[in-house]
Automatic annotation (TrEMBL):
GO biological process terms held by the UniProt record: peptidoglycan catabolic process
Annotated protein name in UniProt: Lytic murein transglycosylase
Domain of life: Bacteria
SUPFAM superfamilies: Lysozyme-like (SSF53955), PGBD-like (SSF47090)
Matches recorded under InterPro entries: Lysozyme-like_dom_sf, MltB-like, MltB_2, Peptidoglycan-bd-like, PGBD-like_sf, PGBDSf, SLT_2
Gene source species: Sediminihaliea albiluteola
Length: 396
């Protein structure tokens, strides 16, 4: 073990030295790319060479916690009583403006406030990392170089368009900025002037940020008059193998299979398709999600994030807490998910990349394994499923 740790330490030092050596030459390449994108020569010559590598950004990009945050832990950390109360207060404060945005973009006020609350706690923390330095650091890192190179160029174009200085641009380690944490490319494409001052500043103008969020959601396909989804309850012997974001069905079909609203009332008989999500397995809360849920996931690709946005929006609008059992989850280690993915792939169930992320592909493969082994097929790696995998697959 000590020998292995020593090798890993030496490898880490080697990679850091290589990154430090390559950073200046990478900046030269970024200068040429910026020229090709039409960035002002003064910015190319003066700003790019002054970039400083941000090791914190590299560390954040590679952090992988020992334990996977459970659904309830995730939700409790984001949909808090304080955030709900503050959202309701801001709903009253900005009601007229938010209703004007709804009339123009079709996005109800409580959803815009939910995004704002989750992204920066309503502007309470927008990040302190130097945006250009962080993006240059990530652009010069091989793991996702192309994506961050494009965002770095977009940030330079944004600085030029809005007459910003590098010191004006602060945000997350990944380069997201402002009240609504837009990446620079999204800022360039979707941000709008909400306060009518002739500029677009997502750091200093709440109205610019809210209007930009509404414009972005409309562009992504938000459907006016349709909610994100709802909590539901299932009866005995429900076929949980039908769950999954990629398996939508008409509401009437879900009702026929025993799904009801969380208060026990019948589902609405609207002509709408919905998918069933079980973020904590069959013993936890269940949600039917509609097309607007997909729009939320185009803002952020995490199902848990999208559920948190929807639930926070509901709470801001006056709804109550979830009624499903939120204390049923066993805490998973990242190694549990890695083991699940490796085992499923070995047994012929396509779980996709072995990355420690419990995504839709892993859940689908897990449901197939559970069905084939007479387990409740909810796509969740509970102890009985992990035990069954351990018996049928060799230890990785």
């Amino acid at each position: 073990m000590k020998y292995a740790l020593a090798i890993l330490a030496l490898l880490s030092i080697s990679l850091q030295v290589q990154a430090n050596d390559d950073f200046p030459s990478c900046l030269v390449a970024l200068q040429e790319r910026a020229r090709g994108a039409g960035v002002d020569e003064q910015i190319v010559e003066q700003v790019i060479p002054s970039m400083q590598q941000q090791k914190r950004a590299l560390k954040q990009d590679r952090q992988q916690p020992e334990f996977v945050q459970t659904f309830q832990d995730y939700l409790n950390a984001r949909v808090t009583p304080q955030r709900i109360a503050r959202g309701r207060q801001l709903l009253e404060q900005h009601r007229s403006f938010l209703l004007d945005l709804q009339a123009r973009y079709g996005v109800p006020p409580h959803y815009l406030l939910a995004f704002w609350g989750l992204e920066t706690n309503f502007g309470g923390y927008m990040g302190k990392m130097p945006t250009l330095d962080s993006l240059a650091t990530m652009a010069c890192d091989q793991r996702r170089s192309e994506f961050f190179s494009k965002e770095f160029i977009a940030a330079l174009q944004l600085m030029q368009r809005e007459s910003l200085s590098p010191d004006d641009m602060k945000g997350s380690w990944a380069g997201a900025v402002g009240h609504t944490q837009f990446m620079p490319s999204s800022y360039l494409s979707y941000a709008v002037d909400g306060d009518g001052d002739g500029r677009i500043n997502l750091w200093d103008s709440e109205r610019d940020a809210l209007a930009s969020g509404a414009n972005y959601l409309q562009t992504l396909g938000w459907q006016n008059g349709l909610r994100w989804g709802r909590e539901v309850s299932a009866g005995a012997n429900f076929p949980y193998e039908l769950a999954g974001r990629n398996s939508p069905r008409p509401l009437a079909e879900w009702a026929a299979k025993g799904l009801k609203r969380n208060d026990g009332a019948a589902l609405p008989m609207a002509d709408v398709d919905a998918a069933l999500l079980l973020p904590a397995g069959y013993q936890g809360p269940a949600f039917l999600v509609y097309d607007n849920f997909k729009v939320i996931m185009r803002w952020n690709r995490s199902e848990l994030y999208a559920i948190a946005v929807g639930h926070l929006a509901d709470r801001i609008a006056g709804a109550g807490a979830l009624l499903g059992n939120t204390n049923s989850e066993n805490r998973l280690r990242t190694e549990d998910i890695l083991f699940t993915q490796r085992s499923l792939n070995h047994l012929g169930y396509d779980a996709g990349a072995v990355d420690g992320v419990l995504g839709s592909g892993t859940r689908a493969a897990l449901r197939d394994f559970q069905l084939a082994n007479q387990l409740i097929a909810d796509g969740y790696p509970n102890p009985s499923t992990l035990s069954a995998l351990a018996k049928r697959a060799p230890s990785p």
